[in-house]
Amino acid sequence: MKTNRLHLAIMIVWVALPAARAEEGGSGHYAPGGMASFIDTLPAKPGLAVANYFMYYDASAGGSLPFGGLLTFNTHAQAYADTLLAFYKTDWKLLGGNIAPAVAIPYVWLEVDGSVTGPLGNTIRMRDTADGIGDITLYPFILGWSKGDLKYDLRLGIYAPTGDYEPLRLANVGKNYWTFEPAVSVCWFSSKIGLEATVFAALDFSTKNDDTDYQSGDVFHLDATIAQHLPVGKAGVIGIGANAFYYQQITGDSGRGTAVLGDFEGRTVGVGPVISFIAKVGGKDLVAEVKWLPELDVEKRLKGDSIWFKLGLAF
């Protein structure tokens, strides 16, 4: 099914297809619930911090979704992503806040299968796999403030199309477009009672995928965590709570064949448990987090569950 002749025939059919729905690939650059707790905020003191974020995502969609220029039905996807994040909180000040550039480099494993309309109108079941370095996220600046138990920051994330991308494939580790993400985070972590309340909100603006002439719509997303942290003897501090997320396209998709039947705006809402741990290792702050995030209400996107494991060290 991956011969050049079949790809050419499918391309001819794809050009005539009347409607594709929601973000290309059934998801955008941002993974809902990805940035939601104290572990995702800047440390209180200037210095280098590194983290590793591992995510497993299993999802499916019964309706039609666009993948690599193909319109698929009854799609199933599995993804593993391991992301190395590094940032440096400097002593440089702007408006009273510390400046911190950062970079996140993901390695992605992806498997997608779905039904595709063939050149004779028949249904073809396709399966693709891909792995490699995905789209790197650059943070030219994170501007953070700390006032006692309260921390908040402004940041600009830029997702660069560095991952491999090939049209007429279901599985691609890159999106083949840029996304610009202005965001704000607020974290209150009580030093007296151990209660945490963290909120992360952002807008995503994406450029067009020129290979498929597909323009994904703008997105608003909001993540929040409520957790109680308690000391565990001399070992450290354990936190137990809930992480919720809301992800909504605020403009429809556009481009060739995407909006003939109207704008389709994707949405997902979910909530799940989160457990964290804080400890001192060699005088440095070590933090870890595990969470399970099921998507409960989804429209025009893949729907599934994600599992996250995060590990960070502040020097």
Overview of this protein structure:
- This protein is mainly beta and 315 residues long.
- The protein has one domain: monomeric porin ompg (Porin, Beta Barrel).
- It contains one helix and 18 strands.
- The strands form two sheets. The protein has a twelve-stranded antiparallel β-barrel with strand order 1-3-6-8-9-10-11-13-14-16-17-18. It has a two-stranded antiparallel ribbon with strand order 12-15.
- Mean pLDDT is 86; it is low at 1-21.
Biggest β-sheet description: 12 strands, antiparallel, barrel
Give the total of domains: 1
Strand content: over 45%
And the CATH topology? Porin
Poorly predicted regions: 1-21
Shape: elongated
Distance between the termini: 51 Å
CATH superfamily: monomeric porin ompg
Strand order of the largest sheet: 1-3-6-8-9-10-11-13-14-16-17-18
Structural class: mainly beta
Helix tally equals: 1
Query: Averaged pLDDT, please?
Result: 86
CATH architecture: Beta Barrel
What order do the helices and strands follow? HEEEEEEEEEEEEEEEEEE
Helix content: under 10%
From the alpha carbons, calculate the radius of gyration and give it in angstroms. Answer: 21 Å
How many β-strand stretches? 18
Per CATH, the class reads: Mainly Beta
Topology of helices and strands:
Blueprint: H1 4-16, E1 47-61, E2 65-67, E3 70-89, E4 93-94, E5 97-99, E6 102-117, E7 123-133, E8 137-147, E9 150-159, E10 179-189, E11 195-206, E12 214-215, E13 219-232, E14 236-249, E15 254-255, E16 267-281, E17 284-299, E18 303-314
Antiparallel strand pairs: 1-3, 1-18, 2-3, 3-6, 4-5, 5-8, 6-7, 6-8, 8-9, 9-10, 10-11, 11-13, 12-15, 13-14, 14-16, 16-17, 17-18
